[in-house]
Amino acid sequence: MEKDILAILADRSDEVTPHMKVFWEQQRKLLAMPKFGRRCEDSEVCNILNERQVNSRRFAATTDKEVDELVSNAQAHSTKAKTIYAVNIFKEWAKVRQTTMELHEMDNVTLDNHLRLFYAEVKNQDGDDYSKSTLLGLRHGLGRYLNSPPHNKGIKISGNPEFKKSNVVLNAKLKSLKQGGKENVQHKPPLEPEDLQKLKTSGVFDCSSPLGLLRNVWFSTVLFWCRRGREGQRNLTRESFVFAQDPTGEEYATMTHSEASKNHPGGIKDSESFQHIGRMYQTNEETTDTAP
Predict the structure, then answer these.
(1) In the predicted structure, residue 291 carries a pLDDT above the cut 50
(2) InterPro entries annotated for this entry (predicted)?
């Protein structure tokens, strides 16, 4: 390879710049070095090698695929599921409408026209209107899909003048839901204090058995720190909590770190979560308390 490059340089000597000659001289010295088990004796070559090693550690080269994976992994699993849900709903509607163009292939004008009809016509499997939160979730999900790898379109559907027609229809649909008393989502009923007392006295939280102790710790963690359903529970470890004393000598348990959650996923615009500063104080009861 060295002879081939030398021949090219000789044939095109008038085109070779001084900078190219210096670069090739450095490459020639590197190519001439023994590869394994030898000490570098040429200071110039050593400097080149050291500089390359430092740069390779500090600025590791990445591919577009690796960058896309970094962006994708930043989204919570539940967020990805909601994105897929929104796209599937849109695809089902587009199939009924006999729309052959894929969502990511539409330009902004075409997408605005389709969303205008989609917001007006979309209903759940029972034929009822979706709630306000679901409709807004569909819009957010479609936006995430278009702005996530591999599409990376970089568009904003909400508050964008290019999507004025569709947003006007969505706003009218939400007003119609409110007027009809269908705006709010139906939440699960809360756990009443009487039911909590039944749990305490039923023996399911009996700390004398391994299963009862497990249930007691799990239930107290979910209840006291007000965690969102099962979000992030599998990631908790013994190191997630610490026992301490306050200035009066009262013992308590608290979290050691802020967790990534739906409301606090991290990122530039994320605000500090105060979940980790909550305290569960020691009581004289053997079973879990009914309130934080």
Answers:
(1) no
(2) MAVS
